[in-house]
Amino acid sequence: MRCERRAVRSERQPQTKVMVEEMEVKGQRYFKGGQKKGQKRPAQDGIKRRRLDATSVSYFRRVSERLSEGFTEDEEKALFVENVLSEVKGQAVLVSMDMTGSVALERLLSLASPAQVAGVLAELGGETGSEFRDVSCDQCGGHVMESALRQAHRWNEDDSDVTQEDEEHCGMLEAEVKRVCGVVRESLVQFLKDPYGSHVLRTLVQVLSGSLSPDAAAAQTGKKQKKAKAEVLDFEFPVSFWWELKHLSERLMENINVCVTDACASATLQTLLTVCHRKRPLLCRKLIKGIMGYLTALSSAPGVSPLLVFLKDPSCSHLMQTVFSCSQKAVLRDVYRSHLRTQLMPLALHPIANYTIQSLITASARFRVFLKIFDELMEGFEAILAAGHMGVVVLMVESCVYWEEKQNELLQRLLQAFHCSEPASLQVSCLPLFLSLLAYEVYYNTETAEGDALTQPVQRRLSVSYHGSRLVQALAGFKDRSVLMNSLHGFGSADLLTLGTDRSGSHALQKLLTAASDKGRGKILRKLEELYVPLACSSCGSRLLEAVWNSATVSQRQSIAEKLVPSESQLRSDQFARHIWAKFGLTNFMKRRADWQEVQTGESKKRKMFSDILQ
């Protein structure tokens, strides 16, 4: 159900909870209470739970259907929104807390003007604004509150066409957002610990920072995006929002004990750190300093850093990952020296703490502290592999791209771990071992007995794992790729087709081909010549072929085109290959070869020019 998708489990973690309760520095106590699993949520204070009548439910269901159809004219849309909001007026709280009504109102607010949104918020808050808390902590009302708050991104929209009336309307919306902030600060702990109220609080933090996440930005249209975009929606916001964010941050730090131990509250603090890291770096540093100061000030067993407990905690470990990701070099260096030195191996092997170590590796990849982290983890490298914590291994490899002096050492350890280091002739088999994450004996099904030699390796079909593909992609970024390329040259047509059409394997092959020199790429392309058509007709293979085309020389492109053109009917009728046909300009290749050659030569020169500039 829609309203269940955000019901975050807020289970208490016994180890961290006891630690915080027993070791509070300033006498603060952990907020006790909360809803137990399986227990019904109590009715909100001050509001008796009522439902819309059947006629109203039917009306708002038709409103949702009409919104799904869309509008052809802005005037028609504005009139529809005005009429529906007139029906909502006087019962906005009831509509917001109804399953059907909230869905319609949530979508309607994204089409409403700032003044109309401000009017809805004013009614939801009541005269004193106290009802904001009840609506926000409701499973349906919370979604309406989020939708209303997100509309603040239109505060300074189309600045050149803003009239005096528009400024007044935006001022009304600004005032209502500030009123919400006041209520949130007064009842912060309740918002933090509530699974629905905490989502409203996270949206409020994003709005105050002038930065909406991709999910929040997508919600404006009420439609599900086919593919999530990485871009964050940044927008201009009034100066008062910055002060509200500052005051809210101070209140959060006053309740840091709740943010550390509660899953919902921890997620809110993570959101604050993330947006401040992008938009308010000085505030982010202040927050990190406060968080680390609180955690490290707690006493623990003699000689044991309290930070180790939180790194292993299911709730607080997520917060520590965000802290590491947003930290500067000095913080990472201090954390390693004072708390994590000689402790990285136990943490890397821990089922929860290994994720925080992954964040630490990523954050420190470009700093010299990484070299110390790398050396310590290399002492138990095989143990990390044996534990199956491939995320740690892959990130170590990816980080070594910035440290050429460590690349050969890591590659040799990988060859040893997969039992293909000695004799040197076994290294040609390393690529399928890396892709499948299987040792030589397991992959080739060889058995040894005391005094007996290895049996003849049994050829098997290539298998690819997700982390194996990530490992190969990272290794392809090393300066010396000869071992990988020699192994790739030993692949047969069947294995190359399997690799090129696999969801994970296609990315590995793409990285190897695009990172190779023109000469090395040409050798592999000659082996792929008979596979161009099946690759083009595959969802993953067509993407691979397009990437290879973009990095190929003009002569290599001509060779690819010559192999594809004879299968014109098959390619033009296939759902994936038809895009390849158009992208490669194969119709021109067949009928106007000279024009095609001129276009490809021009593109090649542009690509080389931009490559030289980037270098």
Automatic annotation (TrEMBL):
It comes from the Eukaryota. Pfam families: PUF_NOP9 (PF22493). GO terms for molecular function: RNA binding. Pumilio repeats lie at residues 487-526. One of its GO terms (biological process) is endonucleolytic cleavage in 5'-ETS of tricistronic rRNA transcript (SSU-rRNA, 5.8S rRNA, LSU-rRNA). Coiled coil: none annotated. Keywords: Repeat. InterPro entries: ARM-like, ARM-type_fold, NOP9, Pumilio_RNA-bd_rpt. GO terms for cellular component: 90S preribosome; nucleolus; preribosome, small subunit precursor. This is Nucleolar protein 9. It comes from Cyprinus carpio carpio.
